[in-house]
Amino acid sequence: MKKVYKDFFLYPDILVMMLLATTLTIYLFIQGFELFMLGWFLFGLIFFMFSEYVTHRFLFHLKPPKNPLFLKFLKRIHYDHHAVPNELHLLFLPLWYSLPNFLVLCAIFYALTGSLTRTVAFGVGLMTMLLVYEWKHYVAHTPLKPKTRFGKWLKKTHQLHHFKNENYWFGVSNPFVDVLFGTLKHEKDVETSQTAKNLEKRGRDITAACHFKDERIENN
């Protein structure tokens, strides 16, 4: 079991993000902690919750693109994870994806507020929720057993996303945005998808269906 924890906390991409979050937190305390920092930190947490859902649903689950480079990107960032859910290096968002996204969001936030301290507090919130996301995702795919009822339920919903139907249960760190968008369902109300383990197949199935339809029209 110790190895399971080491695999997470010593994974290079996770380790870099933890060190960055710790460094930024230390910076805030050196500046002198003020209550408003907590507000921007919480805003960063909430912002990540929504971005996690939107990115997972509308980017990671895009229909397979024709562009080979974009397809390669989606395969690495998510498609392959559905194909091999428990593969360790596919569980985590790669640093080349998460770090630029973090920097861009912080740059936009700084441009809007003009405050480095507020931006850092917001950034720590983003980073903290990213690490929560990575941990919850890791737990969902490893033998680790959550101790709370909520944790067990959250793990189950993510497994349903992988093995029941990929069009529901997008929230990994939390289910709240799923509730808002209507994608949190009882498993008995959702039919089993044939493409949950092969996201690329969705595009091929649709294309094949279109060809079949065209052939029927031509024959008639």
From TrEMBL:
UniProt KW keywords: Endoplasmic reticulum, Fatty acid biosynthesis, Fatty acid metabolism, Lipid biosynthesis, Lipid metabolism, Membrane, Metal-binding, Oxidoreductase, Transmembrane, Transmembrane helix, Zinc
The UniProt record lists the keyword Metal-binding: yes
One Pfam family, short name: FA_hydroxylase
Database matches in InterPro entries: Fatty_acid_hydroxylase, Scs7
Domain Fatty acid hydroxylase: 41-183
Cell compartment(s), UniProt: Endoplasmic reticulum membrane
Membrane topology reported for the UniProt record: Multi-pass membrane protein
Transmembrane parts of this sequence: 9-30, 36-54, 90-110
Cofactors: Zn(2+)
Protein name per the record: Sterol desaturase family protein
Organism: Ectobacillus antri
Lineage: Bacteria, Bacillati, Bacillota, Bacilli, Bacillales
